[in-house]
Design brief:
Helix content: 10-25%
Oligomer: single chain
Largest sheet: 5 strands, parallel
Number of helices: 9
Shape: globular
Strand content: 25-35%
Strand order of the largest sheet: 8-15-9-10-11
Length: 393
């Protein structure tokens, strides 16, 4: 919606949103907790409140919306083929396309937990929908595998609904979610967090009746003798998100294996002319405010035809897991997004010759570094720019 509004505001004559669900807003509609909008609206909102602000703007803007519409194919023209319960099979030919399809959760099959396939094993996002939209409780005695933000928020949500959350188990030696969510969702409710641990077996046939957890060493191998049975009737999985890029990949868009999303320049222009990407389909964000910011960049560029599939290459170096954008096509100010490999204290971040001193960095907290027009012009003269971390003196 932010991209569509920006495109309309930048002068695009006709803008359409194709939405698979029956309403606009995506995953925000089931995120009834607060904490949204502090950067974008300068106030704290729930997910539905945040989405509603955009829905109302879209309704006033004259943007066409096609709900219950599933996009099936993207071709390089670019042309989109979609199917809709209201319109049947439809084709759209556009000057520009912005992909904002979001991401999906990793499931049990993606992490290969052994055991039977009983009821009561589900992703944290599915449990969130059951409770907040469908009105169902998924269980009463819960173990959560993974300390991503959705899992942390669901630990608190289940506790508030009367369930007993017995453990949050994280294979990494540090929490995978935001520090504020660890404090507000676990520590405030005395929910134990077990680090460097994982679930190695699921027990039960018709319904899960427990899990076996164990500690892991630095290579993530199970430490023998640390196994422990935890009785429970529900196991929630919060073990990572995957950008929804099957359509973009099939359309020939170049993807970054680190982010799982398209490679883009600072205008969010992909490797296919006229095709842009933004939000969680590009890389998984911590804050929806930055998703909106990125949507505005992509929508404006799509309307004005900005961007290129060539330019100065920006690559992650030592201590940096990924960077977005992946290339620089103009000498304009922009924000560089990145994630680090592991938690570190007091480091210097190098972006070419530019240095930024950070007190603490964590993989769970995406860094957003502003690059001025002058700095962008200096970077643009280079063929390749490495972004790396070093210990500060």
């Amino acid at each position: 919606m932010a991209a569509a509004l920006a495109a309309k505001g930048a002068g695009a004559g006709k803008v359409a949103i194709l939405e698979r669900a029956g309403e606009l807003g995506g995953i925000l509609n089931q995120c009834i907790h607060n904490g949204f909008g502090l950067h974008w609206f300068k106030e704290e909102l729930t997910g539905p409140e945040y989405a509603t602000r955009f829905v109302q703007q879209v309704q006033r803007s004259g943007i066409d919306t096609y709900l219950n519409t599933m996009v099936l194919e993207l071709t390089p023209q670019p042309r989109i083929t979609a199917v809709s319960s209201d319109y049947g099979l439809v084709e759209f030919t556009a000057r520009s396309v912005v992909f904002a399809a979001g991401c999906r959760e990793r499931t049990r099959g993606a992490i290969n937990i052994p055991g039977f396939r009983p009821a009561g094993v589900l992703t944290a996002g599915t449990a969130q929908r059951y409770i907040n939209i469908e009105g169902f409780m998924p269980g009463r005695e819960v173990v959560i595998l993974g300390s991503g933000d959705i899992g942390l928020i669901m630990a608190r949500r289940l506790t508030l609904e009367g369930a007993k959350v017995k453990a949050v188990i994280e294979i990494l030696p540090y929490a995978a979610g935001l520090a504020r969510n660890v404090a507000q969702c676990l520590e405030d409710f005395h929910i134990p967090l077990y680090l460097s641990s994982t679930v190695i077996n699921i027990h039960g046939q018709e319904r899960i009746n427990g899990v076996t957890m164990a500690q892991v060493d630095p290579d993530r191998a199970v430490v023998s003798g640390t196994e422990r049975f935890i009785p429970c009737d529900t196991l929630l999985l919060s073990v990572g998100l995957i950008p929804e890029n099957e359509l973009t990949a099939a359309g020939g868009v170049k993807l970054d294996p680190r982010t799982g999303g398209p490679t883009v320049d600072e205008y969010r222009h992909t490797s296919i002319p006229g095709v842009y990407a933004c939000g969680n389909v590009l890389h998984v964000h911590d804050l929806v405010d930055y998703v909106s910011e990125e949507g505005e960049i992509a929508g404006t560029a799509a309307a004005l035809g900005y961007g290129s599939h060539e330019g100065t290459e920006i690559v992650p170096g030592r201590g940096v897991r990924y960077v977005v954008p992946h290339r620089l096509s103009a000498a304009q100010p922009f924000n560089l997004y990145l994630r680090v490999v592991e938690p570190q204290e007091r480091v210097r971040l190098f972006i070419g010759d530019k240095q930024v001193v950070k007190r603490n960095v964590k993989p769970s907290e995406m860094l957003r570094i502003g690059i001025s027009a002058q700095e962008a012009a200096e970077l643009r003269r280079l063929k390749r720019v490495e972004v790396r971390l070093e210990e500060a003196p």
